[in-house]
Structure formats: structure tokens, C-alpha cells
């Protein structure tokens, strides 16, 4: 049986993952509107990945005998000043996710809930990858500066995500 404190916190995290997915979808739409289909593809793959995160927490809560309570998903920011701006927003989102996962882990430790800590360890590890992936794109955009050619090359590279 899961404590009501942990149940509430996991439900909150499920909502965060859905919100994150929706934000990535909004970023994908923005890139598509700028004819950067590769960036848009990367964001679409990421959007799907966030849904799998929500599903993982959903299944865990059900398996532990907890009750899933879905909350509303908010309107995501849909306009960005530049590709760099949009990617920086994605990185900020991942950093916020990491902070939430860490907080959730702390709570599970406080509650001596070992099963939840086990589940969350996967997310702790995943966040290292999540932040790294977005940071890499941001670093490349920073290196590209105003070069349209490099931006298009990066777009071409990001188009491959999820295709093999
Ligand atoms: Fe669900 Fe991108 O972390």
C-alpha cells in the first residue's frame, strides 16, 4: 500500500509529464511553422517519450494500489524568438523536471518508501540523458551563431531521431 502523501506526489508528477509532453508538442509546432522539420521531428519524438514517462508512473501507482487522479493540462507557450530560444526553453523544462524528480525522491526516502525510490531511480538516471540531449543541441546552436547553413545541417541531423 502506498501512503497518501506519495500517491498525491506521483499524481502531480504524472501531470507534470503530460504538461511537458504538451509543451514539446507546442515547440514542435513552432519549429514546423519555421520550416525546420528536423527540429520539429525531434520535439515530436520527445513528446512521445514524455508520455511514456507519465505511463510508467501511472502503472507504478496502479501496481502499488494507489489511485490515479488526472489533473488538467495547461496551455503551453507556443511562440519563441529563435531556435536557440526554443531549445533553451526545453532545457529549462528538463532542469525543472530533474528538480521535481529529486524532490519526489527525497519524499520517498523520508517516508521510507523503498519501492517508490526504486521506481524513481530510473527517472533520476533518465534525467541525466534528458538534460544532456537538449544541452548538446543548445551547444551546437550556440556554436552555429548566425550561420544558416549550420542550422540546416543540424535540422537534417535531428530529422533522423526515431527513424531507425
Ligand atoms: Fe519526463 Fe523529459 O523528462
Notable traits:
single chain; mainly alpha; Ferritin; 5 helices; binds MU-OXO-diiron
A few lines on this structure:
The protein has about 160 residues and is mainly α. The chain has helices at about 5-35, 35-65, 85-110, 115-145, 150-160.
Can you give the mean pLDDT? 97
Write down the CATH class.
Mainly Alpha
Q: What is the fold named in CATH at topology level?
A: Ferritin
pLDDT < 50 runs, ≥5 residues: none
Number of domains: 1
Strand content: under 5%
Relevant CATH superfamily? Ferritin, core subunit, four-helix bundle
Instruction: Output the helix-strand order.
Output: HHHHH
Helical amount among residues, as a percent range? over 70%
Give the terminus-to-terminus CA distance. 41 Å
Global geometry: elongated
Amino acid at each position: 500500500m502506498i501512503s497518501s502523501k506519495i500517491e498525491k506526489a506521483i499524481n502531480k508528477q504524472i501531470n507534470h509529464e503530460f504538461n511537458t509532453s504538451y509543451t514539446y508538442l507546442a515547440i514542435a509546432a513552432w519549429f514546423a511553422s519555421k520550416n525546420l522539420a528536423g527540429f520539429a521531428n525531434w520535439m515530436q519524438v520527445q513528446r512521445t517519450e514524455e508520455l511514456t514517462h507519465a505511463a510508467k508512473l501511472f502503472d507504478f501507482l496502479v501496481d502499488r494500489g494507489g489511485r490515479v487522479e488526472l489533473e488538467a493540462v495547461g496551455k503551453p507557450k507556443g511562440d519563441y524568438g529563435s531556435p536557440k530560444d526554443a531549445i533553451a526553453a526545453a532545457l529549462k523544462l528538463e532542469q525543472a523536471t530533474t528538480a521535481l524528480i529529486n524532490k519526489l525522491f527525497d519524499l520517498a526516502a523520508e517516508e521510507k518508501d523503498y519501492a517508490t525510490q526504486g521506481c524513481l531511480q530510473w527517472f533520476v538516471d533518465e534525467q541525466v540523458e534528458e538534460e544532456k540531449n537538449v544541452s548538446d543541441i543548445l551547444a551546437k546552436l550556440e556554436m552555429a551563431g548566425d550561420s544558416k547553413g549550420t542550422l540546416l545541417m543540424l535540422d537534417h541531423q535531428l530529422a533522423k531521431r526515431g527513424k531507425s
